[in-house]
Design goal:
heterodimer, A: 255 residues, mainly alpha, Arc Repressor Mutant, subunit A, 3-stranded antiparallel β-sheet, 12 helices, 6 strands, elongated, B: 271 residues, 2 domains, 10 helices
Chain lengths: 255, 271
Amino acid sequence: MDQQLLFTELKYILESLLMAAPKPLSVAELRDVLGKAADEEGATEAARAFRKLDPKRIQAALEELSQDYATAARSYRVACVAGAWQFVTLPEFAPWVRAFLGVKNRPARLSLPALETLAVIAYRQPVTRAEMEQIRGVAVDGVITTLKERGLIDEAGRAEVVGRPMQYGTTPAFLEYFGLASLDGLPAADELRRIPVVRPEAVVTADPAQLPLPNTVEEKAAEVPATTGPVEQAVTPAAVSEPASAPPADAEPGQ
Amino acid sequence: MSEYRVQFEVFEGPLDLLLHLVRKQEVDIYQVNLTRIAADFLAYLGQMRDLDLEVAGEFVVMAANLLYLKSRELLPVDKQVVVQESAEEGDDPRWELIRRLVEYKKFKDAAGRLQHYEEHQALVYERRAARMELPTAPARKGAEASVFDLIGAINEILKRFKNRDDVREIEADAHTVSEKLESLRALLLERPRIGFAELFSQARSRLEVVVTFLAVLELTRLRQVHLTQGAEFGDIEIAAAPALTGEPEPPAVDIVPDAPVPTPLELPLSA
């Protein structure tokens, strides 16, 4: 069968499985089902073609299926949450679905300090308490307890430094709570992971007019983006253009 | 280790307050006037004291750091540069502070995005198909019901009429085995499977039960029905056999059941 046709067929098979599934299905589970169907007695040629599929192809078909629903602008989507695929309704239809099914059973919203700490843990995991406090500038003990109680973070081994402090990481429940496919799905993940904040060629502080720029860096300094824009935009290009191999300022000991 | 937790206005800590002050200057974070920031920061701490709020340690540390930076600014510019160039990059305290601020700002923004995701996800409903209870395939291979099963079943049904016998009106014997045989055949042609108990649910008298039972026995003898029992002590099922559904031969019945049926039987069937 034509490859494109086969791919479309695969897409619709996966769609039917997600429609009938009582729970979200991972690529591995979907692959198992395809394999089982291929081994059934009297399986068609098409069914047998999906016996041992590359998981990447299943992933690609699911992504295209998801895109199909987005393009069709339907009221629901095929979404991946914590590595498992499922049908979900869009938030704008929540008033009606809620009237029918009731309010989703979710704990109270997280406080801002909790969200900040969670962001640090999510992007920098595994991370110690001291590293979190270094970034946030405040103690995080209480917040960590709360986040642990809610199952959003968990202990993730010990750092190989003096005192062997506990390290923390996020749990699958974290991905579910925020509706993320995986940790790679975190917004601006590249920027916030281990890549350090890169120093611009000239740090201007007290009085910009008085601070002479060293001759050697004058040219490069001109490349530093205009300084009137939002802080983020001014910082991002410098941070991103730095080679990833640059040793992070807060590199983990022992690396 | 208990820390003072000061939340002044909306500030979660010294970095949060500093970010706020930078924003008030409306300049890029790298261009910020640290001298002014230091003054603003101290002014805030002063206000906190006026409001009788205890100032948490981290705020004091930050204030001290800012004062140090401010004192450096008082040095002639050329001396400053010498200090800066002779030191390791990370040792420049101004840069270190700005780096921390930029980093904190990024995580604060990330927290804002997470909050957005949190709100979004609270409104998203997942589809959960109910696990389907597919009906099990008909128990075609049920065990053959034995004579004892039949006796047990009919006794159960007869029990229902035991008490009623005393008060029941005497009726004309309206039921004959041949009639029942015919109606049973018609029923089976319509619905190939009938539960044994169900068959007697409409019976109004002991006599009718007996006649119906005889009809079942007769059909069984003629191999026009098949009696099976799906489970032990389960209901016996009466199923049409091929001989019934096909063109049935007019049965050459010559049995005359004795005992419970007092009426003369009109057998064989009128063909």
